[in-house]
Amino acid sequence: MGPQWLLFALMTVVSWGVYGILLHKGQVLMGDPVNGRYKAFLFVGVAYFVVAILGPLLVMKSAGASWKFTAGGINWSFVAGVAGAIGAFTTLLALGAAFKGKVANPPAVVMSLVFSGAPIVNALVSIWLDRISGKQYALPWPFLTGIVMAAVGGFMVVKFKPVAPPDKPAPAAGRPAAAAAAGLIQPPEVVAALRVAPGYADVSVRSYRIS
Description:
Layout: H1 4-29, H2 36-63, H3 71-100, H4 106-132, H5 141-159, H6 174-181, H7 188-193
Helix pairs in contact: 1-2, 1-3, 1-4, 3-4, 4-5
């Protein structure tokens, strides 16, 4: 088994990877084209309360942790929560706008762009904070190459997004069969046996009305 941090990181990858798909599904199933996205996000907030508040409280209580909090820790943690909530809300807005704009497969496009761009922002902000604190170090070329590849990958996902094939029309051969089953089309031998009304000719031999 690998390091514990790697296991938790992979769990985060899976949970955040399906986040956009599940959120988009909830928005659609709300049955409200105008406000369905906000209704879905409301229950995302409920889920945050259950997981992000009750979860840590239970863990801290079971571990016997101290209930003392520092002002700096509270402030920065609150800012982090706001940033995360804004990101979740703008993700919802992006999914709704992509669906309204008839973008093919909105969850795949939006979430791929988000997860290819977020690591770039994370890396650049981390470097910027290190520079502010006085840390100076060289940036290796594989790191810079990875940033470029992530940006190119996000562009390619949006540019070459998968498009579902159009619905195929019903085969023409099935229509006469369905009409025959309904009694709308008679077999040739039945048609030939039909008695032609007075004043008319048999249309099966391409004759017309006799005047």
